[in-house]
Design a protein that fits this description.
The chain is α/β, with parallel strands linked by helices. The protein has 10 helices and 14 strands. It folds into 2 domains: about 220 residues, Rossmann fold, CATH 3.40.50.300; about 80 residues, Alpha-Beta Plaits (2-Layer Sandwich), CATH 3.30.70.
């Protein structure tokens, strides 16, 4: 994979001594969707702001498509499109005007054919003459992306792209992000919606208290840290797990109506056969059983709590 963003030994300490980032090393590859997850105050916004040239790092380096974000600021910044959470332009301005204006901010010559393609791809062309105040919530979100793409960036940062929107609109945004990746744009996504990362991301980074805790391919992360559980619905409730079953990772549900067995599905011997045999020996009968796989949200919460 070809790296398009390289962060090395990045530190940020604000006036007053608050250390927002601690020795961050991060590589993001060209053409991927990368999800950055973390609780409030974890350092997501500070990290993204430094990469985008909005905030100055205390130490360390950032390269964007080979350009140093400080030494080669113009070249680096021109490769980045940043999609904020809110549309802040004049509500009476028109869609076409604001997109053309944004392109001009980067010193690029007019290219109406390219801007028309962007608006058509985002299903906004029919609204090109509409005032911003007349757009629906979904259209405003797509317009934010159109503005960020106006100067033809190679990288698109999406800061909480579906915060506060309904499920239908969220699905539409996911489709847009996938389209952008297919067109060659590298997408970096910050989100509080764990299912958003689970649905879209190729790789996932978790940041907490200013430190990168891990960076993994999503599928590998789910395999490595995901737990598998077998739930047995008991014929007769139990008050406690019998002593003869203490060697298994068992948990009794509230009310004692079900027994939950947690195991590693990657192991050749999961222990399920032995457990079922020992349950029979202990006289414990069950009416049904099913298995569940831990979600990315479970994994994320475990990591942060640790």
């Amino acid at each position: 994979m070809t790296p398009i963003i390289e962060v090395r030994n990045l530190e940020k300490t604000y006036e007053g001594g608050f250390r927002a980032l601690r020795d961050i090393d991060l590589t993001i590859n060209k053409g991927e969707i990368f999800a950055l997850l973390g609780p409030n105050g974890a350092g997501k916004t500070t990290l993204i702001s430094i990469i985008c040239g909005i905030v100055t790092a205390s130490s360390g380096s950032v390269k964007v498509d080979g350009y140093d974000i400080v030494r080669d600021y113009r070249q680096a910044r021109s490769r980045i499109g940043l999609v904020p959470q809110e549309l802040t332009r004049d509500a009476f301005e028109h869609v076409w005007t604001t997109v053309r204006f944004t392109r001009g901010l980067f010193g690029l010559p007019p290219d109406d054919a390219y801007l028309e393609k962007v608006l058509r791809d985002l299903s906004l062309w029919e609204k090109k003459d509409s005032q911003l105040r007349m757009l629906s919530g979904g259209m405003k979100r797509r317009l934010l992306i159109a503005k960020a793409l106006a100067h033809e960036p190679a990288i698109l940062f999406l800061d909480e792209p579906t915060a506060g929107v309904d499920v239908e609109l969220r699905q539409g945004m996911w489709e847009t992000v996938r389209y952008l990746r297919e067109s060659g744009v590298t997408v970096i996504l910050t989100t509080h919606y764990i299912e958003e990362a689970e649905e879209m991301a190729d790789r996932i980074g978790v940041i907490n208290q200013g430190e990168i805790m891990l960076v993994e391919e999503k599928a590998q992360l789910m395999r490595k840290l995901g737990r598998k559980q077998m739930v047995l619905q008991l014929r007769e409730p139990l008050s406690r797990v019998p002593d003869e079953l203490s060697g298994y990772d068992l948990m009794l549900s509230e009310g004692g109506s079900s027994l939950v067995y947690t195991y590693d599905r990657e192991l050749v011997r999961t222990g399920i056969d032995d457990l079922l045999h020992d349950l029979g020996q202990a006289g414990i009968r069950f009416t049904d059983l099913y298995t569940t796989q831990s979600s990315l949200e479970d994994i994320f919460l475990d990591l942060v709590n640790q």
